[in-house]
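Support request from a user on the community tier.

User writes: "When I paste my structure tokens into the form, the page sometimes reloads and wipes my input. The last time it worked, I copied everything first. Here is what I submitted, just in case something in the input itself triggers the reload:"
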């Protein structure tokens, strides 16, 4: 089985996280990166010190809308 699409996504999230200056946004990228690397929601929660429900929310956003769905929307 070819893992190239997953590897491409992992590399994309490595770069997004590396280049992100906002701590909250970086945490979203890191959560998805760990998920793509095969970590469980519980492990991600413990590593990033965020609730498991939050991790699940980030993963849902990603699976439904990709990296763009993870962007924090600015309030008007």
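"...and here is what came back when it finally went through:"
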């Amino acid at each position: 089985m070819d893992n190239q699409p997953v590897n491409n996504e992992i590399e994309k999230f490595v770069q997004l996280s590396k280049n992100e200056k906002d701590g909250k946004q970086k945490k979203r990228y890191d959560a998805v990166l760990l998920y793509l690397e095969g970590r469980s929601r519980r492990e991600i929660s413990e590593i990033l010190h965020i609730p498991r429900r939050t991790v699940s929310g980030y993963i849902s956003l990603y699976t439904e809308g990709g990296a763009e769905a993870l962007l924090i929307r600015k309030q008007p």
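Agent notes: The reload is a front-end session timeout and is unrelated to the input. The chain has one domain: 4-68. The chain has a mean pLDDT of 94. Escalated to web team.
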